[in-house]
Amino acid sequence: MKKLSLTIDYLEYDSMDELTAEDKSLMLQAHEAGKSAYAPYSNFSVGAAVLLENGVVVKGSNQENAAYPTGLCAERVAVFSAGSQYPGVAFKTIAVTAKSSKIAVDNPVGPCGSCRQAISEYEVLYNKPIRFLLMGETGKVLELKNVESLLPLRFEGKDAFHSH
Ligand code: THU
Question: Ligand 1 pocket check: which of 38, 44, 101, 150 to mutate, most ligand atoms within 8 Å of Cβ?
Fold first, then answer.
C-alpha cells in the first residue's frame, strides 16, 4: 500500500480585466451566451463559450425542461454543438459564467461532474489540453489548464474499450 496525493495548479484573477484580450473576449461571449438560457425552473442562467483551434467560438446556454433531468447544462450544449458542427477540430478553451435572478453569483461556477466527463472526451479525442476559464456573473476568474485538473482519475475509453 502506498499513500499518494494529487495537487491541482490553477490561476486566480481578481477580475475579467486581468485576462488576456483573447480570454476576456471569450468570457464576454460566455456572458452573451447566458442571455439565451432557458431556465424558468432554476432561474440560474449559465453561458459557455468554446474556442476551437480554428478560431471559431461556439456558444451554449442551459436549456431546462418541465421534466427536470431532461434539461442540459450550458457546457454540454456548447461542446456537443461544437463537436457536431466542427468534427475533427480540437477545443482550446472553454469559458463558463452564470447568473441568477434570485442571488448574486459573485464566485466562479464549476462545471458539474457530467459536463467535466463530457468535456474530457474531447480532450482525449484530440490529445490537446482544454483550458477552463470560470467565473460567476461578477468577480474573480479561475483558470485551469486541462480537464485533469477538474476531473482527476477520470474515466477514459481506453480503460474500457481498447486493448493494452
Ligand atoms: N447548470 C449549467 O448549465 N452548468 C453548470 O455547470 C451547473 C448547472 C444549469 C443546469 C440547470 O439548468 C441550472 O444550471 C441549475 O442547476
Answer: 44
Please tell me the pTM assigned to this model.
0.96
SS3 labels along the chain: CCCCCCCCCEEEECCHHHCCHHHHHHHHHHHHHHCCCECCCCCEEEEEEEEECCCCEEEEECECCCCHHHCECHHHHHHHHHHHHCCCCCEEEEEEEEEECCCCCCCCCCCCHHHHHHHHHHHHHHCCCCEEEEECCCCCEEEECCHHHHCCCCCCHHHHCCCC
Query: Domains (ranges, CATH) in the chain?
Result: 12-151 (3.40.140.10)
Q: Going by CA atoms, what residue is nearest to atom 14 of ligand 1?
A: 44
For 86-141, the pLDDT digits (tens) are: 999 999 999 999 999 999 999 999 999 999 999 999 999 999 999 999 999 999 99
44 lines ligand 1 (CB under 6 A): yes
